[in-house]
Amino acid sequence: MARTKQMAHKKLRRTLNVDEAGPSTPVTRSTEVNPKSSRPTPVTEDRGTGARKKHRFRPGTVALREIRKYQKTTELLIPAAPFIRLVREITNLYSKEVTRWTPEALLAIQEAAEFFIINLLEEANLCAIHAKRVTLMQKDIQLARRIGGARHFS
Description:
This protein is mainly alpha-helical.
């Protein structure tokens, strides 16, 4: 491991002017100032309100963090309640007799739907990369659906 030199952090000291200190305090009083807080803070266009500029990560940082997060998890991505409502609504369009679903059946349908969507988006991403783009467009998804690719439901 490489050896690195560590420097001691110095505390800045400054004396107060008569304007800053006020009439009742002595002028020779000194205060300690943290060097990090003495830096000017970035502000928005509206300088009168004193609002601070919102912290932003560099482009792509949050996307890579989300990719790592979702690759680690095994949970379902679509919220269960809206998906179940949608399944019941579609079922009601086709058959008025089928009104009851077991939780296992709804879970199986949701897992299959997410698997299908994720595979479709993976294939569409490959189509976009083949077109020398990184942005996924509607024509990539249409091409991926037309090609079909290998559909493995295991």
